[in-house]
Amino acid sequence: MKLSKWIGMSAFLTFCAVSVIFLTLLGQDLFKIESASDKTESTYQYHFVLIPEELDNEYWQLVQKGAADAADVHHVYLEYLGPKQADVDDHLKTIDMAIAGHVDGIMTQGLDAKKYKPLFQKAREKGIDVVTVDTDAEGSKRQVYVGTDNYYSGFIAGQALIADTKGEQYVGIVTGRLDAIHQKLRVKGFRDAVSAEKRIHIAGIEESAITKSGASGAAYKLLNDHAKLTAFYGTSALDGAGIIQAIAQYRSTTDFYVLAFDTLPDTIQALDDGTIDAVVVQHPYEMGYQAVASLVRLQKGEKEEPLQYTGTSVIRRGDLPLQQTDRKQGVQP
Questions:
Q1: Upper half-sphere CA count for residue 116 (Cβ side, 13 Å)
Q2: Among 5, 152, 156, 160, which one has the highest count of C-beta atoms within 10 angstroms of its own C-beta?
Q3: Residues pairing with 138 in the sheet
Q4: Strand, coil or helix: what is 230?
Q5: Is the full-model pTM beyond 0.90?
Q6: pLDDT per residue as tens digits for the range 48-101
Q7: Which DSSP state fits 318?
């Protein structure tokens, strides 16, 4: 009897300890937001939060840089919070935490409209403005979308493949997330663009989980599964680097055509080296800058255009070096 009581007491104490640790960690994050809200009252005009799907992603760090520059101009206290690695549940929890912290505005992705709609509605009911960046949540209560027209970006990628290749092509698609709407649109646009070309075939599609190692594994699987493969299309920022890594490891004699997304340093270096043939260019800095500026205007009661597309194009080796526009602080792109 004493032994069972001791076991029961140990289990209870363990549960209490775990609960205290969890609440302490949660409290630290909530305190960060709440203390920041206090700070905005005395130092800043507004308190905004940028919540990416993955904090350490190079693409999102460029979005954050644009947002930070705009925040400096508009006297905004800006936080950059989110999962360390892509995780939809953690992403949703961070948005909910920002709502609980009574921030003035939220910038984030609408990765799955069904899951994000209730949170966006909750934010609006509390008077918090919501701008989606990079990935929209159509039909939700978000006020503005700032980012790429993802269907169009996929379509021009398909047009690039048609223009740059001859003869039969068997394409392996590596996509960041199979369930993410922006990735789906990039794939759909691509498929629609090449659908009328009988010489171009989609051999297969694999998920990279928006990591370089995941992209390499996905490309290697496509190489193993499809002997006729001649081309690759990567739809997220790290896919291009992962694809060329897999090609190098596979040691095939085929000269693969590789079409990648985003102008990250490794991708541009590969384009210059000739291991990547074309890159779809987005403008993450401008997305971040415009998202903050849009939230500021919403806070002032101004009417905003709900769809604010940033530019998209395809570049090839001949377009290098890229021109880096020197933007003076305070000048909106």
A1: 28
A2: 160
A3: none
A4: coil
A5: no
A6: 999 999 999 999 999 999 999 999 999 999 999 999 988 999 999 999 999 999
A7: G
Per-residue pLDDT reduced to its tens digit, 199-229: 999 999 999 999 999 999 999 999 999 999 9
The first and second tokens of residue 121, run together, are: 């509605």
Element (H, E) at 133: strand 129-133
The whole-number pLDDT of residue 22 equals 41
* pLDDT at residue number 234: 98
Contacting residues for 217 by C-beta, under 8 A, at least 6 apart: 208, 242, 246
Domains of the chain: 2-148+284-310 (3.40.50.2300), 150-281 (3.40.50.2300)
CA 288 to mean position of chain CA atoms: 12
Output the pLDDT for position 105. 98
Element (H, E) at 194: helix 181-194
Burial class (CB in 10 A: 0-12, 13-18, 19+), 250: middle
Amino acid occupying residue 40 = T
Cα separation of 319 and 155, whole Å? 20
- Residue 164 C-alpha from the chain's centroid: 28
Flag whether pLDDT at 8 surpasses 80.
no
Q: What is the spatial order of strands in the sheet that 76-80 belongs to? A: 76-80, 46-51, 105-108, 129-133, 144-147, 307-309
Phi/psi for 124 (5° steps) reads: -65, -35
Three-state SS annotation for 242-302 = HHHHHHHHHCCCCCCEEEEECCCHHHHHHHHHCCCCEEEECCHHHHHHHHHHHHHHHHCCC
204 contacts 172 by C-beta, under 8 angstroms: yes
Q: Which tens digit of pLDDT belongs to each residue from 252-304?
A: 899 999 999 999 999 999 999 999 999 999 999 999 999 999 999 999 999 99
d(CA 328, CA 198): 49
The string of DSSP letters for 51-99 reads E-S-TT-HHHHHHHHHHHHHHHHHTEEEEE---SS--HHHHHHHHHHHH
